[in-house]
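Obj.: predict assembly geometry.
Materials: sequence records (below).
Method: joint structure prediction, all chains together.
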Amino acid sequence: MIMKHPHNSKEDKIIKAKDFSVIKAELAHQWIAFNFQDKKVLANGQTLEDVTKQLTLPQLSQTAIFRVLPAGMIYSPNQL
Amino acid sequence: MKYDYSVSFPFDPSRPAFRRPLVEVTLFGPLGSSIKTLALIDSGADYSLFNIEFARKLGLDLSVGERQTTTGIEGGYKELLILDIELQVEALNKIKTPVGFIDSPSVSGLLGQIGFFDLNRVKFERDHNVFEIIPR
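Observations (raw structure tokens):
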């Protein structure tokens, strides 16, 4: 993604923020596989292994797997 | 490389939102295994820390490595297993670095002083909503 940095005259590459807007509160404490392109939780479970065994290899390569901490991980780009 | 801050809204709506410097990180294990996850860039952490479940899934040998204890997580002492692994932050080169693996429900992934901050110039521009990682 190319964006103009507010304090730079040149164009800088900036990696876009991760969008967590569809992660629901009931997933707190769980492991999830999340696809940032589709904004979809592809799998969830109590352990990382529970999550990975639900995914195909191509899905694994396209998702980030992480534990949803109780403090929350919900992000909405409209509220920046 | 510059990255936008992510914004987290706590599940408790009465609490304020806060911004977090989060990056996608791929952890590599032996025999070509890898897992993509997220890590918080945490200047207050001595080591980069990832949940022990990543080490198990990657097939890392948990019988080797250095064992240390740490404080500040869950309010008590927790054991860390330090292993040298390869990891790659999104849009940067793959590096080999010491990582602490910890069995804690409070830790998913974070990048700390040893093996991350000491290998990169990290510039937080919170007022511009970006942070920058420049490999040294």
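Conclusions so far: Residues 74-80 of chain A have pLDDT under 50 and may be disordered.
To do: check interface contacts against the pulldown list.
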